[in-house]
Structures are given as C-alpha cells and as structure tokens.
Amino acid sequence: METIFEHLKEVALVDITTSNTNPRSDFDEQSIQELAESIKEHGLLQPLLVRPKDKGYELVCGERRLRACKLIDLKLVPVQIKDLNDQEALEAQIIENLEREDVHPLREAETFRLMIDKGEYTIEDIAAKIAKSEKFILQRLSLNNLNAEWKKLFFRNDINLSKALIIARLDKKYQKEVAQNASDWSGGIKSAQQLQSYIDSNITALISKAIFNPLDENLVKKAGACINCPKRSGANCSLFPDVKEEDRCFDKVCFGEKTEKHIENEIESIINNAENVHLIKSKHQAIDEDLSEKLKKLDINVLVEYDDFETIHGKDERKNKIRGFWVNGYDHGKYVSIRLTKKQEVKALDPKSKESVDAQIEKINTRAKRMLELDGEKVHKRIIEAMCETEELTVLGKHKYCDATEKVNRLIVWNALSWPKKEHYGKLLDMDKYKKEGTAGFLKRLMELTKDDMAIIINNVGYDSFKSSLPTYSEAMALRSLAESFGSIPIEDFEKEQKAIADKRISRRKERVTKLKNSVKS
C-alpha cells in the first residue's frame, strides 16, 4: 500500500461516500450519538481512511466516525488518503473490523466468509493474518450455517457461543427440530449439555453402532462411504472438539437410509440363499406394510417371538445353529441365535424325505417366479422416482405430444370405464385380439383403435362422470355439447317444455304477490 497524498488532509464531508464492501453492517445508534458529542467537544482525533475515486473519495475505514460527524453536521474531516485497489481496501476493512473489541462472533464468521468468497484467501491465510489458529477460523466459519432463527437468538445473547457452535454443525432441517425442543422449564434455552444430549439422542448416531458397513460406498451411492463424509465428527475434529467418543454421524436421514437399505439387502439375501436363517418379529409390533405384502407374495412366514421361537442369550453351543433376523422391534436389522418352539419343530421334521424335498423345491421355484415379479416392481419404482425429477414431467412445453402420451391418454380413459362397459365394449372392439401377448398385446390393440372407436369410450366415460343431478357448470355444458353433437336429442323441445312450466310458475308467483300487496290495509 502506497500513500500518494499527504499523510493527513482535510476534505469536505460531502465528498466522502461509504463503501459497499464494509463487513460491518450493524451500528449502535446510542454509541454513535455519544461519539458525536465527543467529536463536537474534542474534535475527530483519529482520521478516516479513504481512497480516491473519480469523484471525491470512498471511505475504507471509519464508518462509525463518519456517521458521528454527519450527526453534528461537520463540514470538513481529517482523512488519510491511500491509493488502494479493491483487494487491499477489502483487507483493510476486514482487519479493522476484526480488531474491534465488541465484534460479535457471527460478524467474524461473515467476515471470514467474505474474505474467502471475495478475496484470494484460504483458511491458512486468514489464520496467519489475524494471528489465530485454523481451528478458530473453522469454528467461526461454521457459524454461517446457523439458520435465521438461531442467528437472531445469538445476536440477542439468548444463546452463547458454545450453544451456537453446537447448533451450527447441524443441517438446517435439524436446527429447526432442535429449536422446537430447545426451551427449558422457565421458557429459556436449555444448557449446552442439555442441547447436546437431545442432539445425541434424536439426531446424531454413533457410527460404531451402525448395523451397516460404514466403509461400503455402494450401499447408498449418492451418499458414498461414511469415512469420506464431512458430516462425520471424526472427519473434522476442529468442528467437533467436544465429541470425545467415537465418530458420530450428524445426518440422521442418511444414516436411516443406509440402515433401511442394509436391512432390505439382508432380507433379500435371506430369502434367496440362507435357509438356516428365519425372519423373525416381535409379537407386539407390526412389520412394515410393503415388506409384509412382499413376504405374502413369496409365501414366507415371519416367525413370531414366544409363539414360534425363543431367543438364545449368550454363547450358542449347539452343533446345528438356527439364526433369526429381526425385521422389527428393538433389535431391528440384527441377527440372533434362536430356538424353535415345538410347533415349529413339528413342521420341520424329516427335512430329507422325498415329500419334504419336493415341497422345498416347489417353494424355491415359486419364490423365484415371484421374485421376478418383484424385480419388475422395483424397476417401476425407480422409473417413477426418476420421472418426478425430470423437467419433461414438470415444465410446460418441455415435452411434446407423442405416441407414448397418446397411449397413457387412451389407457386412462379405458380404465375409467365401469366394469360392465369394459366387458361390453371389450368384446365389440376385440380388445383380446392379442391376448397371448399379455399386457403388451392389450396396449397394442388399444393403440390400434380408431378415433371413432375411442369416441364411444370417451363419450361413455364422460356420460358416467357428468350425469350427476348436480354437476358443475363446466361439466353440464360439456355434456350438453356432447348431446348436441349427437343430433338426435331434441334439446330445444326440452327447453320449450321447461320454459312453459316456468312461465306458469312465474305467473302464479306474480298473482300471489299482487294479492298480498292488495290485502294490506291502507
């Protein structure tokens, strides 16, 4: 930085414009008023730092003093003029702001973020420049992650730095959850220890307690392996200095997704391969509806605790071990050694007999066939999940009308037909023409129908949908238009007959009204 004018110079206050890059945005009006009184009595003892512009000067440092001078309508102020480029001016503002004794940690956080976003600074550069540790910089930067509600509480000193740092390392969706549970019995904010306890119990999870493999990067591909995740406390000890125990995951949604995916994979493996493993459930808790439906399709019974099996606690010394996999309950997703009850043992007698082997083979083949059906359901599920994120489905004009759209349109209309009419028109239109080809054959025939063929289907669907005695106006008008298009329905005659009835009714009403008026005593 090079001084190009006198070290001190007086310039007109009106020639100085404020900077739009000053990191400081909050000013205490009362303290500025007190400073203005001091300047009025003693003068401005510390000059403003400015840099020359095309017209006048731009303030670099000293906005609080500038505001105080304006309050007392000072005409001239002492300044130090330096020829600074944008980068140097920003650096001077940042350093001055950080040297204030009353600077709020959130303002420090914003300043550090500004240095990284607008300047050519790294965390190491900032640490060296202000003589602080990199850990200090990282923790301050994390405060930028606080949502608006928590920032407001922090600025009002309703929470201290310790609590703010605990909240800041959470995703904003979890910050909102903590806020809803943060009040203590007196209406204030719980202690840092209480907040941490709530977070540990309801939001974070010990990675060592995971039933899935944290190193598996393919379990949930979008998440990758836990070892590479920044939301793991062990990934950045500077942000989680108080987490003394093993690694914690700070994203319960991701942790839950991995847990459920692992359980799904294990159940799939048991169904396909592990004949010595039974699916087991708690007697007092229902299992997931989708899983229940799937197992029902595959004719797989889930053993019920106490009724069908007992858990073996401690070491299992048996030669022929039987294991169970919990599909619900407290040990959801875990393997345990089990002992079958007598009822189940009777069912399992003589497993090597021809009758038993034939039954097992039939069950395996049946399951294999049903698993193929379930594979198709999984593909369909992935298709609809992908479709809901595409612009072709959500943005107007992104996708043009095509054969696929027409196919969907025709199927919607066909499915809207009542069952008796499907039977009736299905025969008339030869909808079983390609019956041997299954569903593909039905859709093929549907697309072969002419517009006149489709007209009978559409008209019947419209009639059944809008024939209510109390239709909406648009439905009534649409149905009337359809009736008019038939050319065989005497709509005008209906209207004339109804008008004649209405005219008589109106005439009678007028007579009654006139009679009542004449009956009034004058």
UniProtKB/TrEMBL annotation:
GO cellular component: chromosome
Keywords: Chromosome partition, DNA-binding
A GO term for molecular function: DNA binding
All copies of domain ParB-like N-terminal, residue ranges: 9-98
Pfam families in the cross-refs: HTH_ParB (PF17762), ParB_N (PF02195)
The UniProt record lists the keyword Lipid biosynthesis: no
GO biological process, one term: chromosome segregation
Gene3D superfamilies referenced in this protein's UniProt entry, alphabetically: 1.10.10.2830, 3.90.1530.30
Protein name: ParB/RepB/Spo0J family partition protein
Organism listed in the record: Mariniflexile fucanivorans
